[in-house]
Amino acid sequence: CYILAIESSCDDTSAAVLYNEKILSNVVASQKIHEAYGGVVPELASRAHQQNIVPVVHQALAKANIDKKELSAIAFTRGPGLMGSLLVGTSFAKSLAYGLNIPLIEVNHMQAHILAHFIEEAEYEKPTFPFLALTISGGHTQIVKVKSYFDMEVIGETIDDAVGEAFDKSAKILGLPYPGGPLIDKYAQEGNPKAFPFTKPKVAGLNFSFSGLKTAIMYFVQNNVKEDPDFIEKSLNDICASIQYTIINILVDKLKKAVKETGIKQIAIGGGVSANSGIRASLKEGEKRFGWKTHIPKFEYTTDNAAMIAIVGYFKYLENDFADENVAAKARYHL
Ligand code: ATP
Ligand code: FE
């Protein structure tokens, strides 16, 4: 079957066409407008989605080389995300499904970040159940025990900031543009991760906390800049490496704990932060040191994209799990 999927939960407008488990197209229009504001401005995001949605869907169909009349179903991100953004994709998907008289499938964005691992890719070995998913993105930080496609249990999550926020807010303190995560990654590669030790937060169980780290980094930078106004410029690589090292340690510590508690040694990462080179390297190291088996998806399927929405749509299609015609977007939508 052919599924068209639409993703508009945050600041990327995306559409993908899937044929069974294979992606035929995955078009993403990122919104540059937010860079100037140092973060996503919801009002601007929804307007940009409205402008982008039709051209993006057009392109996705053209790239897949199919006509909309050949589609079997429309899948869309129902939540979680920004309400104004979700409304654009939801309304568009509903209208198109109604117009074409084909089923509509609602998808949870966080479930999609996890099931992205099941997109058919030549050189990629899919995880087997059960596995642990570490979802690290701009809005979420979760460890999920995945028992089957639709049986997932959140066993740990952040009690304040998400890990992507920790990267982006740290970058902002250093005067770097938004989103700063990839820049911290870039500078960290040239720096000494042990140059500046930051204390790790103490959080019970498998939960995370990143807001204390952000404050610690802020005071650390302020104090050093007082002594030497050129501190950031001189030590940027070392500061970034130290921040990244601390964040990775926090994540790996909790993963070790989760593996111990569940007995599951298979780990799949997802979400935009899984693009981070340090995290990727640490997981690979975990394979050697702790006997983990790790899964790192293709980069384009880690950040927000409609391909991951399409694969969930496909699994739901197989189960005849369709949305009601009065389905509405859901900004807070738990796994
Ligand atoms: P959610 O999926 O929770 O709704 P989101 O859609 O905003 O959040 P993603 O697009 O999955 O999040 O990820 C974006 C985040 O990933 C940003 O915080 C960005 O800084 C971070 N990020 C991307 N690449 C890297 C990298 N190489 N190193 C660290 N962080 C990165
Ligand atoms: Fe996301």
UniProtKB/TrEMBL annotation:
The keyword Nucleotide-binding belongs to this UniProt entry's keyword annotation: no
Gene behind this protein: tsaD
Principal location class: cytoplasm
Record domain Gcp-like: where: 22-310
EC number in record: 2.3.1.234
Pfam families tied to this protein: TsaD
InterPro entries membership: ATPase_NBD (IPR043129), Gcp-like_dom (IPR000905), KAE1/TsaD (IPR017861), Peptidase_M22_CS (IPR017860), TsaD (IPR022450)
Annotated GO MF terms: iron ion binding; tRNA N(6)-L-threonylcarbamoyladenine synthase activity
Binding-site residues for substrate, renumbered to this chain: T135, I136, S137, G138, G139, D168, G181, D185, N276
Domain of life: Bacteria
Cofactor remark: Binds 1 Fe(2+) ion per subunit.
Function noted in UniProt: Required for the formation of a threonylcarbamoyl group on adenosine at position 37 (t(6)A37) in tRNAs that read codons beginning with adenine. Is involved in the transfer of the threonylcarbamoyl moiety of threonylcarbamoyl-AMP (TC-AMP) to the N6 group of A37, together with TsaE and TsaB. TsaD likely plays a direct catalytic role in this reaction.
Protein name: tRNA N6-adenosine threonylcarbamoyltransferase
Subcellular location: Cytoplasm
Leader sequence residues: none
BP GO terms, sorted: tRNA threonylcarbamoyladenosine modification
The family this protein is said to belong to: Belongs to the KAE1 / TsaD family.
NCBIfam families: gcp_kae1 (TIGR00329), T6A_TsaD_YgjD (TIGR03723)
Record PROSITE patterns: GLYCOPROTEASE
Entry cofactors: Fe(2+)
UniProt KW tRNA processing keyword: yes
Cellular component terms per the entry's GO annotation: cytoplasm
Residues engaged in binding Fe cation: H109, H113, D304
Record keywords, A-Z: Acyltransferase, Cytoplasm, Iron, Metal-binding, Transferase, tRNA processing
PANTHER family with a match to the protein in the record: TRNA N6-ADENOSINE THREONYLCARBAMOYLTRANSFERASE (PTHR11735), TRNA N6-ADENOSINE THREONYLCARBAMOYLTRANSFERASE, MITOCHONDRIAL (PTHR11735:SF6)
Catalytic activity: L-threonylcarbamoyladenylate + adenosine(37) in tRNA = N(6)-L-threonylcarbamoyladenosine(37) in tRNA + AMP + H(+)
Species annotation: Neptunitalea chrysea
